Amino acid sequence: MTKYELISEEIRKRIGTAYYPEDQPIPDENSLAAEFQCSRMTMKRALDLLVAEGLLFRKRGHGTFIVKAALNKRAINVSGHENRGFTKVMADKNVTSQIIRFDVHFPSEEVAAHLSIDSSAPVYDIVRLRLVEEEPYVLEKTFMPVNVIKGIDEKVLLGSIYSYISNTLHLKVAGAHKKIRAAKSDQLDQQYLGCDQADPVLEVEQVAYLNTGRPFEYSFSHHRYDKFEFSTVEITKTGL
Amino acid sequence: MTKYELISEEIRKRIGTAYYPEDQPIPDENSLAAEFQCSRMTMKRALDLLVAEGLLFRKRGHGTFIVKAALNKRAINVSGHENRGFTKVMADKNVTSQIIRFDVHFPSEEVAAHLSIDSSAPVYDIVRLRLVEEEPYVLEKTFMPVNVIKGIDEKVLLGSIYSYISNTLHLKVAGAHKKIRAAKSDQLDQQYLGCDQADPVLEVEQVAYLNTGRPFEYSFSHHRYDKFEFSTVEITKTGL
DNA sequence: AAGTGGTCTAGACCACGGA
DNA sequence: CCGTGGTCTAGACCACTTT
User: Fold this and answer.
1) Closest partner CB to B234 (pick from A114, A175, A234)
2) Which of A186, A189, B72, B135 is the most buried (most CB within 10 A)?
3) A228: which chain B residues are within 8 Å (Cβ-Cβ)?
4) Residues A64, A124: one domain?
5) Where do the HTH gntR-type domain residues begin and end (chains A, B) (predicted)?
6) pLDDT at residue A186 above 80?
7) What total number of domains does chain A contain?
């Protein structure tokens, strides 16, 4: 844990417990830096995290203030992470998987393009239903290059592909590009997510890549429209 | 324009024009700092922007690399902004509005809570269809406290509420919290967005707040499922 | 040991807003 | 004018990876 993260957590806790009055600026950066015995740059960085979370905002020449809208939120995430894909969020829940399809074949033009591979490089074609506490949570359609993610089998699919990639293959996931849209539910969604024919789904299209820069997953996740939503915070640049 | 933004743009341009080979690290931070005549901190900050955009990623002990998946993207946004709400993105397009409903009344419990106001404080209740180049683009249901955003009338609603808030009221928007989900289209959606009864919509629930910390807008935006998607980049923390 | 990125410092100057 | 946050610097030390 770095110094700025520790300080950030302390300030987050203070906001959550109303240690600072919500209608006044919190102490200025120099005072806080003195209190926490750090440089002003480090203090600023700690506050930056909270600004990015939407808990604080700054007014040049005035001070740093608490976002009132954020106080209504349940409890303010103790560790304050909004965007931590699936498994992380589910850390202490019972996550299981059901395999709907598991094939290997040559990729379509589209899949090859998104994975930056040649059409002659085979890909896994996987459809899994993931359940949280026995409840259907998300239906995932996944393409992964066989050359990159070697040795996928049913046993791996019943657990977490991400655990396999990091713990067994010792590869590291660097990030992902996502597109989020609404879609009509298809026959598979209705069958496995248990949704009605008239129910839509929230579709997340994702290209994930390793810390080698190589894309290793192109996937479409379908979530029940009544059980999943995506949260984000938008910050207006101070200069505008 | 700050130094780190200028440097960031230059590097973004270089990536877009394949100035750097994509299978090798870009020059290290000290070399780049020397080339751009800045400190290493400033150089790092310039690169941070590109990492946040998903164009670059870093490997401690190795170097900074180009994300191959990002190169496929059309042209790499010249100024690289993903999350700039409506009006900004539409800068050079013809945006018009059609007023579906315009009322003032007392807020429901839910609306009052999201706007952090008392149930006795009246709110505008607005439904607008927004069109881009004459095409229906989004149907917005908006609640705003009358005490905060004074003087809204039909003329304002036909243009941009945001312009009115900044240019006439001289208030500043600091940010917004958003939730994105899929929903069934209702009768209004079908009528105004021209979607079929079976078509879903992408719903964005938003609480926007001023640089006074005061929430001023609680809204639900419905987008046609086939014409709108939300893009985002997820970065895995290097420590994990 | 050498080279990379990650953090942190102490201090400087600038931009903005209010007294 | 002063106090605020925003940027920038020059340098230090640490963590990680390869040689």
Assistant:
1) A175
2) A189
3) 181
4) no
5) 1-69
6) yes
7) 2
Confidence of residue A79 (pLDDT cuts 50, 70, 90): very low
Partner-chain contact A232 B232, CB within 8 Å? yes
- With CB atoms and an 8 Å threshold, state whether B232 touches A183: no
Strand D footprint at Cβ < 7 Å?
A 25, 28-31, 40-41, 44, 58-64, 238; B 2-4, 37-42, 45, 59-62
Interface of A with B in 166-185 (CB under 8 A): 172-184
Dist CA A236 CA A57 (whole Å):
10
Q: Per the domain annotation, does B232 fall within a domain?
A: no
Last residue of a domain, one of B48, B71, B94: B71
DSSP string covering B30-44:
HHHHHHTTS-HHHHH
C10 closest protein residue (CA to C1') = A39
Mark yes or no for CB contact A180/B232 under 8 Å: yes
Token output for B8: 């960031």
Query: What is the Cα–Cα distance from B38 to B47, expressed in whole angstroms?
Result: 13
Residues B143 and B179 in one domain: yes
Spatial CA neighbour of A124 closest among A218, A198, A204: A218
Residue A71 has pLDDT above 80, yes or no: no
Q: What DSSP line would sit under A172-186, residue for residue?
A: -EEEEEEEEEEEE--
| Least confident stretch, A26-35, A107-116, B70-79, B226-235 | B70-79
Distance CA A165, CA A140 (A): 17
pLDDT per position as a tens digit, B49-92? 999 888 999 998 999 999 887 766 543 443 333 443 444 455 56
Amino acid at B17: T
Q: Which residues contact A151 (CB under 8 A, 6 or more apart)?
A: A168, A169
Statement: the CB of B30 is under 7 Å from strand C: yes
Hey, is A95 helix, strand or coil? strand
A145 close contact with B: CB closer than 8 A: no
Q: Is the CB of B64 under 7 A from strand C?
A: yes
CA distance A59 to chain B (A): 7
Cβ atoms of A47 and A65 within 8 Å: the answer is: no
